[in-house]
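Researcher: For the annotation table, I need structure tokens for YncE family protein. Please keep the output clean. Sequence:
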Amino acid sequence: MAFCIAGLLTAAADLQAQTGQSRKLLALSKADHTLAIVDPASLKVLAKMPVGADPHEVIASSDGKTAYVSNTGGGRFHVLNVIDLVAQKTIDSIDTSPLMGPHGLAFADGKLWFSAEGSKAVGRYDPATKKVDWAMGTGQGRTHMVEVTKDGQHFYTTNTIGGTVSLFSKGNVEWDQTVVSTAKGVEGFDITPDGKEIWAVAAENGSIYIIDTASKAVIKTLEAKAVGANRLKITYDGKLALISSLRTGELVIYDVKARRELKRIKVGTGAAGLLIDLDNTRAFVACSPDNYVAVVNLKTFEVTTRIDVGGRPDGLAWALQ
């Protein structure tokens, strides 16, 4: 049964309509254990706040006033940091145990969702009650990244060791899971703005797996040769798919409709966290081994500048107020 209607698109896809709001770029430094707030116009760092021992991903609340940071620790840690973006200070820590190794983050339907790598699960935190109010096992090795539809009725995960993508749909009483086989090392993924396709890339073989969300099956495999793929993001207009490679330092750009490669850009010696500007004109690529965030012009496909947000940058996100 198809469920790809406008009201069910992921929260990330809804950001494009909010470009008139005040916005800030959030960037994590694994080496410095900090979250940087960056002005997207001047690309200047406005503030830095301390976070946990192993920060990986960051997400902002829907109102852009609060940020959450996951600390993974190879599946051993159980801490999410809470940052007040208005006051620009770290205000709290969330203990996710017994859900271990929080990593991927999503904010939907007023709640924070997180993958728990060490527990093969996904959890949900309610900021109103300050409690983890729900959890669901995936049964898949290293549940790594998570995306949630705006209404919280569907969510998807990549499971890196399992080599699978999980598609969850809320039934009348229980959640239904469909596990789709891809390849070992599947990690970065995104959903097309119309909600019809999931694009997931596997680090081990560098292939892109296109999954139809209605039939819940792989409908196309692209031999992208994006070995070491870390993240995959689709532009808000649905035209381009970008893949960062931690192994090669390349940003691989695909035409979504034509399903063909357009360009490979060497952005550093290793490319990890990836974020697309809300007007689709720029991409921000965290080059962790190089200690900078590369800014790529998506019209000319060239690196235009670099931002110093601290050592070993990784997770990137937008905060809109």
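Researcher: And a one-line annotation?
Model: The domain at 6-320 is CATH 2.130.10.10 (Methylamine Dehydrogenase; Chain H).
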